[in-house]
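Sat 14:20. Reprocessing the chain from the morning session after the first attempt stalled halfway. Input below, unchanged.
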Amino acid sequence: MNGADRRELAERAYSSGFEYEKRYHGCAQCVIAALQDVLELRDEAGDAVFKAATSLEGGVGCEGDGHCGAYSGAVMIFGHVLGRERDDLADPAGTRRRTNALAQTLHGRFIERYGTVICQGIHRNLFGRPYYLRDSTELDKFREAGAHVDQCTAVVGRAARWAVEILGEAGELR
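Finished this time. Tokens:
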């Protein structure tokens, strides 16, 4: 895949992730859905990855003190695309190292942009303060601050874009 095609794919991933988060919420699943769409990963295995990400939103279970769901979803796709197979647990080919390198690159991009991969830290970066999403009053304030208009939507979009870029840079796009 040439550079122009990769850039177009990355922008489609951004747009898809942004729109999924805006409409449906659930940052991890929205990144995964966007990447499933643009990378054509919709199948039984891909849908199992999507389902497994259900509780990863809002810093895992909406607690906020875990890693960003958008980050988690992108890392899950790296594992889905390249990860170690159950029947190859010994990993003589070093699959874990290659997949970890992709996650490390994504981590670096999150740190550069947001200063953290932790949900509450990203909230602080975006909104000036963290929100505790399990509290309905806090959740209302989070929404009123534009979380699903242009804030978390952009985080999801960027995570999807970065995942495509990183896979492309690693030569892993078909």
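The mean pLDDT is 97.
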